[in-house]
Design brief:
With 337 residues, the protein is an alpha+beta fold. It has 3 domains: 4-67, Uridine Diphospho-n-acetylenolpyruvylglucosamine Reductase, domain 2; 72-225, Uridine Diphospho-n-acetylenolpyruvylglucosamine Reductase, domain 3 (2-Layer Sandwich); 233-336, Uridine Diphospho-n-acetylenolpyruvylglucosamine Reductase, domain 1 (Alpha-Beta Complex), CATH 3.90.78. It is built from 8 helices and 20 strands. It has a 5-stranded antiparallel sheet. Strands 1-2-5-3 form a 4-stranded mixed sheet. It has a 4-stranded antiparallel sheet with strand order 13-19-18-17, covered by helices on one side. The chain is globular, with a radius of gyration of 20 Å. The structure holds uridine-diphosphate-2(N-acetylglucosaminyl) butyric acid. Uridine-diphosphate-2(N-acetylglucosaminyl) butyric acid (EPU) binds next to helix 7. Uridine-diphosphate-2(N-acetylglucosaminyl) butyric acid is lined by residues 127-128, 225-226, 236-237, 240-241, 260, 272, 274-275, 278, 283, 296-298, 333.
């Protein structure tokens, strides 16, 4: 374990922002993680996983601990289900592919989501009708103050829409070291009801899809709409879709009859933030080296060389404009550092 100084984090955040860490250490074992957390010479520490859900607006004047714990194992198996444990530093999509190779079903709709396994529970990643919580069994997390490893069940995690206890009460108190999922080995429950998947499968000429087919459909949809972070820096959806009351929605409908919505409870609906942003005229807007993606307005992009503070300025302008036009507050999904 070697502590380095003045390290660029450009290749370690999917926005590709050239923020620097004053001190940097990569940890590949739990023992090293504990040692790094105990280094009193560096009182301020920052935990970095896959760097897929953060906007670095400044250099980090502290010790950045990059969690790179690898390994995937089957911990239990019954007739038609399996428990698979993956360590936090495994790349999420590669983990999905590993599960598909073993014909384990449940996360095929979550194909191609950027980031690592350790970040997945923090924001309860979700796409195309499936959320991590649907297959989540437990996760292990290192308590930063006691240095003990604790197990969190699904209930403990208090999952919500892009939410968990790790973004609320237990924020910055734990480092997730592994995640265990319960997946199917036979009779896979496919989720193809999300419109775009069904039509993509039809285009592919598939009437009885396998989990691999669903994954391929999701990959095709994502590649057609979402920029590949290896080519254009981005962090997926920058904002959460706002949840508003049905009564407010009905009032808004008189001025904006084409406003889409999804029912989330008896009294509330979710409105696509992408639609609000597009309607406000921001879709595809480019400011030299950053802007709003041309094909999906929910995604802010770094075309290369942008500063995190520029992108934050654009995000704040979008939030303010949407508030002025629709009276709706949209929250960032991405963590602003
Ligand atoms: N829309 C527009 N203009 C746009 C984008 C979207 O009008 O530029 C409207 C359309 O009405 C469209 C609707 O928004 O039908 C929904 O769009 P989409 O299916 O692309 O989904 P989303 O609500 O924009 C969410 C997740 C994505 C996830 C997709 C598919 C959030 C914040 N985002 O996006 O997650 O891939 O659904 O399930 O919930 C991510 O979290 O990084 C992410 C990409």
């Amino acid at each position: 374990m070697q502590i380095q100084e003045n390290i660029s984090l450009k290749s370690l955040n999917t926005f590709g922002l050239d923020a620097r860490a004053k001190y940097f250490v990569k940890v590949e074992t739990i023992a090293d993680l504990k040692v790094a957390l105990c280094l009193d010479a560096y009182p301020n520490k920052f935990i970095l996983g896959g760097g897929s859900n953060m906007l670095l607006t400044k250099d980090l004047d502290c010790l950045v601990i990059h969690v790179a714990l690898k390994g995937i194992e089957i911990t239990d198996q019954s007739e038609d289900e399996v428990l698979v444990k993956a360590n936090a530093g495994e790349n999420w999509h590669e983990f999905v592919l590993w599960c598909l190779d073993h014909d384990f079903g449940g996360i095929e709709n979550l194909s191609l989501i950027p980031g690592n396994v350790g970040t997945a529970p923090i924001q309860n990643i979700g796409a195309y009708g499936v959320e991590l919580k649907d297959v989540f069994e437990s996760c292990e997390a290192l308590n930063i103050s006691t240095k003990n490893i604790e197990t969190f069940t699904k209930d403990d995690c208090q999952f919500g829409y892009r939410e968990s206890v790790f973004k609320q009460d237990k924020k910055n108190a734990y480092v997730i070291i592994s995640t265990t999922l319960k997946l199917t080995t036979t009779q896979h429950q496919l989720h193809t009801e999300y419109g775009a998947i069904a039509s993509e499968l039809e285009t592919m000429g598939i009437s009885e899809p396998s989990i691999q087919d669903v994954s391929n459909a999701v990959i095709a949809i994502r590649e057609s709409k979402l920029p590949n972070p290896k080519e254009i820096g981005n962090s997926g959806s920058f904002f959460k879709n706002p949840i508003i009351s049905k009564s407010i929605f009905e009032k808004l409908k008189t001025n904006f009859p084409d406003m889409p919505s999804y029912v989330v409870s008896q009294n509330n609906v979710k409105v696509p933030a992408g639609w609000l942003i597009e309607k406000s005229g921001f879709k595809g807007k480019t400011f030299i080296d950053y802007g709003v993606h041309k094909k999906q307005a929910l995604v802010l992009v770094n075309y290369g060389g942008a500063k995190g503070s520029d992108i934050l300025g654009l995000a704040r302008l979008i939030q303010k404009t949407i508030k002025q036009i629709f009276g709706i507050t949209i929250e960032t999904e991405v963590n602003i550092i």
